[in-house]
Structures are given as structure tokens and as C-alpha cells.
Amino acid sequence: MHLIAPSILSADFARLGEEITSVIKAGADWIHFDVMDNHYVPNLTIGPDIARAIKPYCVNDSGTAIPLDVHLMVKPVDSLAELFAKAGADSITFHPDAEIHVDRSLQAIRDLGCKAGLVFNPATPLDQLRYVIDKVDIVLLMSVNPGFGGQSFIPSTLDKIAEARRLIDESGRDIRLQVDGGVKIENIADVAAAGADTFVAGSAIFNADDYSSVIREMRGRITARVNG
Fold it and tell me: Total domain count for the chain?
């Protein structure tokens, strides 16, 4: 199953609850929550209090909860991961170069009741994944350099997606392969064909006049490419 995860980094922060409600009505499967600390990346965004505030909005019209997917671009990881778990995160991903004991951090996130994942920057190899894949629920590949929204997709990510897909399939584990950065209508089919199943899109959705039409077109292009 292919999932669309709009990144609220590109939403209107003055109307954040309303924006989340609107994008869920438009068909969002997850809400992606980008956390930057002005240390690991050169930007500062939102913290656990915002996650707690928006959690009640992460529900669709039928009352089904929509997962809150927290991406930590912070260093160190462990203390903030605990705060976000307590604030309502359903999944927490982090960059392995931001924490000394990656295996322990993954297990700690799982022990807090969240799905755990690793994030790999464009130039970061997937080597560490092989050694902790038994504790990973999500692999997130950055297709831009982390820190700012609205960047262009780095084409070499497609080969990396295919490599990650092979590792996941060989493991036999139920792991989602997520891609974040520059994903839009024009390239989402290529990203899906390379092996991704979860797509983070920020400006492509929130900068559009009609969120529903963008998400619908994204799904259509994925289906046409994968089933074509």
C-alpha cells in the first residue's frame, strides 16, 4: 500500500490545526512532522508542545486516527524522542549520525510505544541499516539535504531507493520505505517505481490551491506506473 504523508513544514503555521484537518480530508494517510534544532541542521522549527497541540486534529471524518510521523533532525536524539513519544508521536525517525548508540536509540523508541526508523541523508550510505534492521520499522531516505523545505529532488536518490528496497525485501521484514524531499506530481511515479511506498510531500501539496487534486493526481501517477 502506498501512503502519502504531507509535511506540515510547508503548512500555514498560523492555521496549523485547520491545515491538518484540510489535508486529511484531502486524503493524507500520515501527517509528517519535521523537527529541526539549529544544531544538526541550520534551521529551527517545532517541538513536542506543537505535536501535543495538533494530535487531536490527526483524525479523519470517520474518527480513525491518522498517524503522526515525527522526523527528528536533532542531535542528540534520545531525550527529544522521549518527549515526542509522550506528546503523541506514532512513529519517530532519526539520523544515525546524530546519536552514538543507534541500536539502543531504536529500541528505546520502540519501548516508548512508537514505530522507529532511520533517516539517511543523500550522501550517507546504507551500511548501518544492515546491522539494526531487526529494530527498524521505517527507512526514510532524504532526497534533498535536510534543513529547509522547497528544495529540488536529487536524482541519484532513485538508485539509493532501489538499494534500500533490496535490503528490506531480503530481510523479509515489514518495513516502510519513505522518501522525503522534492517529491511532487511530476516525479512521484519514478520514486514509486524505484521501490518507495511512503511519500513525504510538503510544498507540492500545501502550496497548491486544492490539496485533494494534488493528492489524487499523485495516487493516480503511482498506480499507473506501478501497475502499468
Answer: 1
Which residues span the domain enclosing 182?
A: 3-227
Catalytic residue among 34, 37, 69, 197: 34
227, pLDDT greater than 90: no
Active site residue 34: yes
| Spatial distance between the Cα atoms of 64 and 90, rounded to a whole number of angstroms | 14
CA distance 181 to 163: 18
DSSP state of 72: E
Which CATH number is 148's domain given?
A: 3.20.20.70
The model carries a pTM of 0.97
Helix (H, G, I), strand (E, B) or coil at 110: helix
Would you say residue 72 has pLDDT above 90?
A: yes
Do 115 and 91 meet the contact criterion of CB atoms below 8 Å apart? Answer: yes
